[in-house]
Amino acid sequence: MRLIGMLDSPYVRRTAVCLAHLKVRFEHEPVSVFSNFEHFRSINPVVKAPTLICDDGTVLMDSTLILQYAEARLAGGRSLWNPDPSQLAHDYRGVGLALAACDKSAQLIYERNLRPPEARFAPWMERVTGQLRAAYAALEQESHVHPRCYERDDRHASIAAAIAFQFSHSMLAAELPASSYPGLARLSARMEHSEQFMNYPPVGPGVPGLGARSG
Description:
Layout (H helix, E strand, L loop, with lengths): L1 E3 L5 H12 L5 E3 L7 H7 L7 E3 L5 E3 L1 H11 L11 H29 L8 H24 L10 H16 L10 H10 L3 H5 L16
Parallel strand pairs: 1-2
Antiparallel strand pairs: 1-3, 3-4
């Protein structure tokens, strides 16, 4: 299998790290949706990262759907979801909040860096910033109230939260100071030293001065 996309996208990085934890073999091809647009389009006309090319040639998109397929068909019964049914809803909530935070971060980054200053819509940026902060405030609370979902490095909630916070804080530190989210900052620092995170660091060209993002 081939995983297409740059690791500075939190969605691509999440997919790579989770596949590694699931012990699913794949080749990573760091193709940018920006600087390598035409090449990416030749692989997937939708040009969406991450893209997974299955061994039979089937093209899959969206990190959550790719990982759902991997756990259902490729992981030999392994799963990164919490096996405790009482904790599963909190796992889902944590991943949902982390992905929402990534989405809002990307919207804010695009608005600031791809749109001319005179064309930026301040009320929209304020709204997105508020949604971004709300997502991380809720995720910070989840990490305190339901710590069991974040105590292991091989769980979807901890992986998604750590990758999301690293991405958002590295791009939007002024809006997301680490001191406001101490639990997420500690989680991110811990996870960045894990083998899987170190094997798939958030690097790539992407948007000038930033990094490639997708969904």
